[in-house]
Amino acid sequence: MKIAVIGSGYVGTTTAAVLTSLHHHVTAADIDITKVKKLKQGILPFVEPGLDKFLISMLETGRLNFTADIYQAVKDNQVLLIAVGTPSRADGTADLRFLQSVADTIACSIHEYKVIVIKSTVPVGTNRWFSDYLGNKIGNPHMFDVISNPEFLREGNALQDMLHPDRTVIGGKSQKAIQIVKEIYESMQSNLLVTDWETAELIKYASNSFLATKISFINEIARIAEHAGADVVEIARGMGMDSRIGSEFLRAGIGFGGSCFPKDLKALIATAKELGADSKILEAVEYINRTQPNFYTEKLNRLLQKIAKRPWKIAILGLTFKPDTDDQRESPAIQVVNHLLEECEEIRIIDPTIQTRNQTPWPHEQKVTICRTTTESLSGADAVILCTDWEQFSNIDWKEAASHMRHPVLLDGRNMFDPDDIRSAGMRYLALGRGEFE
Ligand SMILES: NC(=O)c1ccc[n+]([C@@H]2O[C@H](COP(=O)([O-])OP(=O)(O)OC[C@H]3O[C@@H](n4cnc5c(N)ncnc54)[C@H](O)[C@@H]3O)[C@@H](O)[C@H]2O)c1
Ligand SMILES: O=c1ccn([C@@H]2O[C@H](COP(=O)(O)OP(=O)(O)O[C@H]3O[C@H](CO)[C@@H](O)[C@H](O)[C@H]3O)[C@@H](O)[C@H]2O)c(=O)[nH]1
Questions:
Q1: Are residues 404 and 353 in the same domain?
Q2: Does the model's pTM come out above 0.90?
Q3: Residue from 108, 260, 344, 387 carrying the catalytic annotation
Q4: Which atom belonging to ligand 2 lies closest to the Cα atom of 157?
Q5: 46 Cα nearest atom in ligand 1
Q6: How open is the CA angle 414-416-419, to the nearest 5 degrees?
Q7: Whether 344 is catalytic
Q8: What is the pLDDT of residues 220-248, one digit of tens each?
Q9: ipTM value of the model?
Q10: Residue 22 is part of a domain; what is its CATH number?
Q11: Which residues are annotated as a binding site?
């Protein structure tokens, strides 16, 4: 099939490469010319394990092409798959202006029947709105059909998630368009769920919100465990042994970040409000997550006030919202740094993907130092905070680390380490919900 993928970000690029591997002819289109130039050369503009090599091999098939000419991409392809961003507005609602701009482009270039597949995460009602908006613009609602096809990949595992999805959700009204989309994914071994637009849209938000709920739930249990002198890591292990609960998404820590959970949770709360429905659980999930990074850093503050002279020097391990990505969007590590900057003389950050200091603008930029090695970041520090559980941090020699620090204190924001190992290396170990209340 001939498919145009509109938007070449994390989702669009992965989708374009995977659809090529399914023997389709794919044109990936993006308005960002710099991005397109890189992708044409097989250079990924973001970090995503395995996707770089896969992209090159797909370009070599000759069936994958990148372009900044969205009009031509729309003209040349029967299926238009949209994967543009849907960021949060200040009030928490989803900003659909990129989607609307794609609709405007399609309206100017459509001459024959198209199947428009919305892969971007969009609030309930958006597929219906898109269909009406485009139909009115071109004055002919029969020139196209709209299909909701939400994406469930995780950053850091995008390629494998898309090659082997747990499920493929197809929402729509037109049987003809549903059949075409089914054929696109035909050779994939995946559970297929065909439904209407609204249900498909809500499956996406409900899935993300449920996973976010598991995380905030275990973070709340961690706060209780801390008062009770219990260990949340063991609690999660015990809970996870029950197959009805499952062991995933029960890691307590400084909270969830990224371009999806925080924004989708806020958007679902906003949708509920618009519809006049309750969202008490979702609001609690959002509240716990919003307060989680400061809950951790306050714990460190209390200890440092007792043992170290202000202003402090703090080392930060990891700035991305999770390992195996360079994405810092809504990273709780950034909230941790911002919360501490006022009290600190210097914050020394190390992250395997940091290229420049300016990826995130800091309020007191002169206080932030980007380091190349862990030792450099720890040198003279009053404390170190593990914010992102990158694999490479699991190999730190804590005995040596302690010798470089002014005060050997570790706040383990991801409960990554064994408290006994760290303490026996001469470090003071703080975590959340692991039996010690400072
Ligand atoms: N990142 C994820 O892990 C993930 C997973 C599942 C779903 N999603 C959803 O998928 C959507 C895309 O997410 P992303 O992370 O890939 O976003 P992204 O910001 O990485 O990429 C979006 C791309 O769309 C391009 N774009 C914007 N307007 C355009 C237009 N009019 N025409 C062509 N290109 C245009 C941008 O230049 C950008 O390259 C969002 O709705 C997101 O919620 C993301
Ligand atoms: O037990 C856990 C698991 C995750 N996290 C945090 O949760 C966030 C999100 O992690 P993850 O879900 O692995 O990454 P995303 O790439 O944001 O993927 C989510 O968001 C995507 C965008 O909608 C969906 O497609 C995916 O299915 C969904 O998992 C990160 O900050 C993690 O550190 C925890 O704190 N504890």
A1: yes
A2: yes
A3: 260
A4: 16
A5: 20
A6: 115
A7: no
A8: 999 999 999 999 999 999 999 999 999 99
A9: 0.99
A10: 3.40.50.720
A11: 30, 35, 86, 121, 152-155, 204, 249-253, 257, 263, 322, 329
